[in-house]
Design brief:
Length: 917
């Protein structure tokens, strides 16, 4: 059954319950039509009620219609992964060479001269490269899926144990939702499916993921006349105005503030988000800086190959006169220049890095973010729960004169206890303190009427309660400035007075004094609502005429681990900037306690008035950014990126989502808001900067091993080609047959498979690392020719000492070529493999830096194979001859000279350019 058929059958089971509605059968159209139907009709159509679905019905719907998820979020089928493993430019180069070899060695050759060896070796290289990459990526994706499964994004639903049972609240994974489920929402929740609202209270939804519009939109459980018209148009004209529906919340968006209850009307591919995933390029992964870095290096090597191979071809053709042989040899050189193991090395390193980070309680959702983690040089973080403990303590409940007053705590408890939004650490602290004191500060005679949830613009939260005489009282708590902006009176020990400028200044000064002592301060205020103005639902415009009753002061003590963690990050080249919505004075005090020199803070109001250029300049010199709204945080992140930094952002709240999305690496925690976890690239199972530091080091180690392969392979291949150019100009035949060059490259590449298991020098891990194709080019041009010096001495040695020249002069033609080829094959492969130990570190190999055991074993085996092949049963077929034992004395002397020269060049290179990789 095709997906479209399955989708139509999926909806048919529900719309058949109310055929009179004439509902169309495709998902988005159903959503548009259900927006206009009476609620009772919608519930009947979907086979549910406000108490939720019976569990038996849920199970049947899950079995029949599958999980609530978008198809592209799943790992691809193994067959697609296998095909994708061969989809890289280096494999295409090898396949092109296979085609050319077929025509040169088989198709155009005489029957007796047909040679399949080159084709077999090339196809072996293609197969090994592709299969190794496939197995590496297959394991990587499976590991990534297991890691992501550790971070569950859930939805709160009402369900019943049976058709007649009582409704119960359940927390279920989003993928387990079905059409007809009743979902409850609060601030910070992701919208888990397309929902028709049943109830709502001051509900604001961010639809930025679908529309790009930064400002949240208000949603209602009713549909106004304008929205009614939009729904009709949407249902009949391709869903053009579907996002304008005020009583529909769409999958993938998130709750900024308020509460709501809704019924699921579409899941998975039938949602608006699912339709986008099928019809637009949303399923196509955005190219990251890591991808761009790999591609830039890949094309650098391919361009180098496109220049060098024709030169080799022309020199050999002109000097030897055999253009077919010259073409064959040039193709072998092209293979020698192709780092066909690069995709596999990259995949294996990233997977190994992700698994190693998982053992350190860091879950990597996107593998490429491992390298971005290591490249991070600026970490932006919130204050609460990161620099400070996750346990805020209510220290004082004071009247406006600064005296302890239980009435203030009583009001604070009523506000926190009755609010139904996302209960934060402050609410928890208030309720915990009230529990310690007892029932005297926990009045149970009040009933909740309504609430005005917290948002990041008003920065306050109001609850309206009713006493036994049916009198309404609004109780509001919030930030000092925002509370004073809606207050008109103040409750003093002498009575209630007008909040004039003098009283206002006094309150601000007292709050500032508490801030300077390290306290967070909230103001508590009330308003008696006259009998004629009472109502069942209040709006934010009703927050006026408040009477300030007192202060609540909170201690948010710094974590013991914060100071050493920040010092460790600084030691590894990562500067920490604090981006918070909190008061600047409190933030600065905490920063000093953990070893951050705050300087002059930049406030959200200042950022509001800055253009992007001014903000870039200010962000460069600022460490603390305070009283920020969510979009301010995102602007600061972009400003730092524009200054050339790789920026990480650590956040766990709904106000952090825009910055998490814009950062080079978004980092959240398992206890964070749904939208924060969904947006982040990396999830910390432990909210600690020490965990971050370990992740940074592992990211750099992973990237370092990738750079090792690139630098060593590029320089080694360049040295070989340079040696070939010299030999082609002066020797009467190719210094190595094409098949010998291919075998040499194959053995070397296989020995490099174990580089992901190597260790990095501590000095390399001290600084952030980024892709730099220019440095790889420079490294290649400096280090490559050092091997050519000893290749040329080997030519001279084989020509003179071992008689290749004498045989040529005696027999002419190819006399002496087998001796020359055998000697250079061994020297070339041994030097190419041995120098891995020298190039993998900027230190003196073995004495100051020892490779991991897998590297020792793989290079030793490669050297053994190099020395064995000219004596093996395959020697004659490959054009080798046995060499006298004295050759190996010369080989040892050559290797010692090569190591000494390479170490000298390495020292000069580091002194001149200040870096190695």
């Amino acid at each position: 059954m095709t997906h479209n058929h399955r989708s139509r059958h999926k909806q048919r089971g529900f719309v058949d319950n109310a055929t009179s509605t004439g509902l169309p059968l495709s998902g988005p159209d159903v959503v548009a039509r259900l927006a206009t139907e009476p609620l009772h009709h919608v519930l009947h159509t979907l086979g549910t009620d406000t108490g939720g679905l019976p569990l038996a019905d849920v199970g049947q719907r899950q079995t029949r219609y599958g999980p609530n998820e978008i198809a592209h979020d799943k790992p691809p089928h193994w067959a697609r992964q296998l095909a994708g493993a061969f989809n890289n430019p280096f494999v295409f180069v090898l396949l092109a060479l296979v085609t050319i070899s077929f025509f040169t060695d088989v198709y155009f050759a005489d029957p007796g001269d047909q040679d399949f060896k080159s084709i077999i070796i090339l196809m072996t290289m293609v197969t090994i490269s592709g299969l190794l990459r496939f197995f590496s990526e297959f394991r990587s994706l499976r590991a990534a899926e297991k890691l992501k499964a550790m971070v569950r994004t859930t939805a709160s639903v009402r369900r019943r144990p049976s058709a007649s049972g009582k409704s119960e609240r359940h927390e279920v994974a989003m993928r387990e939702l079905v059409v007809g489920d009743i979902v409850t929402l609060q601030a910070g929740d992701m919208i888990p499916a397309d929902l028709r609202l049943i109830e709502s209270r001051d509900l604001f939804i961010s639809q930025a993921v679908l529309t790009g519009e930064a400002l949240p939109v208000e949603k209602y459980d009713t549909l106004g006349a304008v929205a009614q018209k939009s729904a009709t148009v949407a249902a009949g004209q391709g869903n053009a105005n579907l996002l304008d529906l005020s009583n529909i919340c769409f999958m993938g968006t998130n709750v900024v503030s308020g509460t709501a209850v809704g019924v699921v009307v579409a899941t998975g591919a039938d949602t608006y988000f699912g339709a986008l995933a099928k019809n637009v390029v949303s399923h196509k992964r955005v190219e990251t800086s890591f991808d761009r870095g790999v591609n830039s290096v890949s094309w650098l090597l391919i361009r180098f190959m496109l220049v060098m191979v024709p030169v080799v071809f022309m020199i050999n053709g002109l000097t030897k006169g055999d253009w077919l042989s010259a073409l064959t040899f040039a193709l072998a050189v092209a293979v020698g220049l192709t780092p066909e193991m690069l995709p596999m090395i990259v995949s294996a390193n990233l997977a190994r890095g992700a698994l190693a980070m998982a053992r350190r309680k860091v879950v990597v959702k996107r593998l490429n973010s491992v390298q971005n983690f290591g490249a991070m040089d600026v970490l932006c973080t919130d204050k609460t729960g990161t620099l400070t403990q996750d346990r805020i303590i209510l220290e004082q409940h004071l009247d406006v004169a600064g005296d302890e007053q239980e009435d203030v705590l009583r009001l604070g408890w009523l506000n926190s206890y009755h609010q139904s939004g996302q209960r934060n650490l402050i609410d928890v602290a208030i309720i915990r303190r009230a529990n310690e004191i007892g029932e005297s500060v926990q009045p149970r005679t009040f009933a909740k009427v309504d609430e005005l949830p917290f948002d990041f613009v008003r920065r306050r939260l109001s609850v309206v309660v009713e006493n036994e005489r049916h009198e309404h009282l609004m109780i509001t708590k919030g930030a000092v400035e925002e509370m004073l902006s809606v207050a008109t009176h103040v409750k003093t020990p002498q009575g209630i007075r007008t909040l004039d400028d003098t009283a206002r200044a006094m309150l601000i000064a007292r709050a500032q004094a508490y801030n300077e002592d390290g306290f967070r301060v909230l103001v508590v205020a009330t308003r008696d609502i006259p009998a004629g103005e009472t109502k069942t639902q209040y709006k934010t415009s009703d927050e006026h005429g408040l009477t300030v009753c007192g202060f609540l002061t909170f201690l948010d003590p710094p974590k013991d681990s914060a100071a050493p963690a920040i010092a460790a990050l600084r030691e590894h080249g990562v500067s920490v900037k604090v981006l918070t919505g909190d008061n600047p004075i409190v933030t600065m005090k905490v920063c000093r306690q953990v070893g951050i020199e705050p300087g002059t803070p930049l406030l959200g109001a200042d950022i509001e008035s800055m253009d992007d250029t001014t903000l870039r300049e200010a962000a460069a010199r600022t460490t603390v950014f305070a009283k920020l709204a969510p979009l301010h945080k995102a602007r600061v992140v972009k400003a730092l990126q524009a200054n050339g930094h790789t920026v990480g952002f650590l956040g766990d709240g709904i106000n952090d989502a825009p910055a998490l999305r814009d950062a080079d690496v978004g980092i959240s925690v398992d206890t964070g808001a749904d939208i924060a976890k969904e947006t982040a690239d990396i999830i910390l199972l432990e909210k600690s900067l020490m965990v971050l530091e370990a992740g940074v080091i592992k990211g750099r180690e992973t990237f370092g091993n990738i750079l090792k392969y690139l630098n060593m392979t590029a320089s080694s291949n360049f040295g070989n080609v340079f040696s070939v150019l010299v030999a082609s100009a002066f020797l009467p035949w190719e210094p190595m047959l094409a098949v010998q060059l291919l075998v040499q490259n194959l053995v070397y590449d296989i020995s490099q498979m174990f580089l992901p298991w190597d260790r990095m020098d501590p000095e390399f891990l001290k600084k952030p690392r980024k892709w730099d194709a220019g440095n790889i080019r420079r490294f290649m041009l400096w280090i490559g020719p050092t091997s050519s010096v000893f290749d040329i001495t080997t030519y001279a040695l084989m020509w003179t000492v071992f008689g290749a020249g004498a045989l040529y002069h005696l027999h002419g033609g190819t006399g002496g070529q087998a001796i020359m080829n055998s000697g250079w094959f061994i020297e070339g492969l041994v030097s190419q493999t041995l120098v891995v130990h020298l190039l993998r570190t900027q230190k003196i190999p073995f004495l100051q830096s020892t490779p991991a055991l897998p590297i020792m074993l793989s290079t030793s085996v490669a050297i053994a194979i190099a020395c064995w092949l000219p004596y093996s049963p395959f020697a004659d077929a490959m054009g080798f001859v046995s060499l006298p034992g004295s050759y190996f004395y010369w080989l040892v002397a050559t290797m010692l000279g090569y190591i000494a020269l390479a170490q000298t060049v390495k020292t000069i290179y580091i002194r001149r350019f200040g870096r190695w990789f």
